[in-house]
Write a structure and sequence with these properties.
single chain, mainly alpha, globular, DUF2624 domain-containing protein, DUF2624
Length: 84
């Protein structure tokens, strides 16, 4: 399972806005390209472990600051789909 977690984290930490929007669409989560770009710019190179609750909470707090509460909720929903 750790191997799969590492792959998912690597993808999240280097994701582009278009890729993020594509994944959101696959899970029926509406995210604009602008929102996705803001989030992807923040995530790039951060080495975030979305399977770690503390890391995930801190990331969502930062996303709330840069992209707003609604976007953070959508990203949290997307992360939840990845970790479950």
């Amino acid at each position: 399972m750790k191997f799969l977690e590492k792959i998912i984290n690597a993808k999240i930490n280097g994701i582009s806005g278009k890729e993020l929007q594509k994944f959101a669409y696959q899970f029926n989560i509406e995210v604009s390209l602008e929102q996705a770009e803001l989030v992807s710019q923040y995530l790039k190179g951060k080495n975030i472990d979305i399977f770690n609750e503390t890391d995930r909470t801190n990331v969502l707090k930062e996303i709330t600051k840069i992209a707003g509460t609604e976007t953070a909720k959508k990203v949290n929903e997307l992360f939840s789909n990845f970790i479950n």
